[in-house]
Amino acid sequence: MNKQQLIQQIKEKKSFLCVGLDTDLKKIPQHLLSEEDPIFSFNKAIIDATADYCVAYKPNLAFYEAFGVKGMCSFEKTISYLKNNYPNHFIIADAKRGDIGNTSAMYARTFFEEYGIDSLTVAPYMGEDSVTPFLGYEGKWVILLALTSNKGSMDFQFSCDENGERLFEKVLKTSQKWGNDKNMMYVVGATQGKMFEDIRRLAPHHFLLVPGVGAQGGSLQEVCKYGMTSDCELLVNSSRGIIYASNGTDFAEIAALKAKDLQQEMAVELDKQR
C-alpha cells in the first residue's frame, strides 16, 4: 500500500485507527482455550468485529514468538486472513528488528517476502546499514523508532550532543537521508504530547505510528492538535483498550464498540482539518 492509498483509506473511513493484536493466552477469554488455535480464533473475531472502524492492524511479534512454533503459525494464519479478507487494511509487523546489514536483509526477506506484510518496525540504533536493507522493497514501509512512550525513553532519547541536539532529533534528521515520506514512518508515543511539534518540525510529511492512546494514558486530542497534518499522516494504535475490553463471550462485540468510539473521535479530529 502506497502513501496515497493509505491516505485515501483514512479519508473514506474517517479513521486513522490501528488495532494492535497483542494476543496473550493469559488474557483472552477462557472459553477460547478449547479451540484448536485459540490465538487465531481470538484474532479472527477481533478483526471481523473492528475492521469497519480501523485502517490498520499491528500484531506484536513478541506475543507470538512467546509460544514458539505454534505461536508463529497463529501469526502466519492471522496475516493470511487479513490479506485474503481485508486487503485494504495496512498490516504492521511490530518486531523492532535492526542488525548488521546481512542480518537485516534476512529480516526484511522474512517479513516482506515470506509473509508479504506492508511494514515493519525497525530500531535505528545500529545506523544506516542496519536500516537500508528494509528500504529496498518497493511498496513496503520501514517504521523507525523515534520517540517512544515508555518511561525509559528518557534514558537515551532526550540525550543532547555538544550542539544541544537531542538523540531523537538526530534520528529523525539522519534517517531522512536513507528514506523518504513514501517508504518511512516514525514511531512517536502518544504520551509525548506537545513534543509532536518538535517531531513535525523535522518530519512534516511523514506518517507517524502513535502507540499509547488509551491504556497508556495518551490523549488522542493532544496527538491530533500537535501531530496531525492536512493529510492526517497519523496511525494511532490501540491494543489493550480494544482487544481486552471484555474477557467474556461478548469480547468481540465490546471490542467493536471501543473501536467505534475511537473512530468517531477521530472523525471529529479529521473534520477540523477541512
Q: What is the mean predicted local confidence, pLDDT?
A: 94
Number-wise, the strands total 8
Q: Strand order across the biggest sheet?
A: 1-2-3-4-5-6-7-8
What integer value in Å does the Rg equal? 18 Å
Biggest beta sheet summary: 8 strands, parallel, barrel
First-last Cα distance: 24 Å
Spatial shape: globular
In short:
The chain has 274 residues and is α/β, with parallel strands linked by helices. The chain has twelve helices and eight strands.
Structural commentary:
This protein is globular. Helix content is 43%, strand content 15%. The protein starts with a helix and ends with a helix. 44% of the residues are buried. By secondary structure, it is an alpha/beta fold. It contains twelve helices and eight strands. The mean pLDDT is 94. An eight-stranded parallel beta barrel has the order 1-2-3-4-5-6-7-8, surrounded by six helices. Helix 9 links the parallel strand 6 and strand 7.
